[in-house]
């Protein structure tokens, strides 16, 4: 038994892959690209804060960066499994998945730690932004609100997770629009 079996049930992953292979592949490639982009967003936020809060700038994005790297690994393992499972009988495909996830350190790193640290890292970044105003407060509110939406609406209706991640992404885009890389961060007015 693997951690992913506990989350999805034996064979559910293979069933979702077999049911809509093109949608599954497209979705996973998009999520992989998003995880990489969030990694760059964390690095960018660190750069924006480096003049004002050098220690905070180095530490604040670490959980999100580690989580994003974990997600990159998780999605990469899923894509490797997808390639292994293509054309196999269902039983052989399930055995291939179990063999891929047999390594407990690999499974803990990519299936558990990455997906848990990623949203935690987002909260760790968004909450100080919202409270302190080091960066636009609206961005912190969008990031926190988007994750709150994902956590409360996940599974309630189709596309709830996509909508929540769109809201989260909007917060990061807001930071980039208000503080483009070629100009220093605007000083925030108290209040």
Tally the helices: what do you get?
9
Number of strands: 0
Mass-distribution shape: elongated
The domain count comes to 1
- Beta-strand portion reads under 5%
Low-confidence stretches: 1-8
The proportion of residues forming helix, as a percent range, comes to over 70%
> Nearest-angstrom radius of gyration?
19 Å
- The ordered H/E elements are HHHHHHHHH
The major β-sheet equals: none
Walk me through what this model shows.
With about 190 residues, the protein is mainly α. It has one domain (about 5-180). Helices cover about 80% and strands about 0% of the residues. α5 (about 60-85) crosses α7.
Features:
191 residues; mainly alpha; elongated; disordered N terminus; 78% helix
Short description:
With about 190 residues, this protein is mainly alpha-helical. The chain has nine helices and no strands.
Explain the layout of strands and helices:
Blueprint: H1 3-8, H2 12-19, H3 21-49, H4 54-59, H5 62-85, H6 90-100, H7 104-132, H8 137-153, H9 160-178
């Amino acid at each position: 038994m693997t951690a992913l079996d506990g989350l999805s049930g034996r064979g559910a992953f293979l069933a979702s892959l077999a049911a809509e292979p093109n949608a599954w592949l497209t979705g996973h490639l998009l999520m992989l690209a998003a995880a990489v982009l969030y990694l760059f967003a964390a690095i960018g936020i660190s750069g924006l804060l480096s003049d004002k809060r050098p220690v905070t700038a180095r530490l604040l994005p670490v959980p999100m960066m580690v989580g994003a790297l974990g997600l990159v690994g998780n999605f990469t393992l899923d894509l490797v499994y997808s390639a292994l499972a293509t054309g196999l009988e269902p039983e052989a495909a399930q055995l291939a998945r179990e063999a891929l996830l047999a390594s407990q350190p690999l499974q803990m790193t990519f299936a558990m730690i990455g997906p848990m640290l990623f949203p935690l890292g987002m909260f760790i970044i968004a909450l100080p932004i919202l409270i302190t105003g080091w960066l636009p407060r609206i961005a912190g509110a969008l990031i926190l609100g988007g994750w709150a939406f994902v956590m409360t609406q996940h599974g309630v209706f189709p596309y709830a997770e996509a909508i929540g991640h769109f809201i989260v992404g909007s917060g990061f885009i807001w930071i980039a629009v208000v503080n483009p890389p070629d100009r220093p961060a605007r000083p925030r007015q108290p209040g």
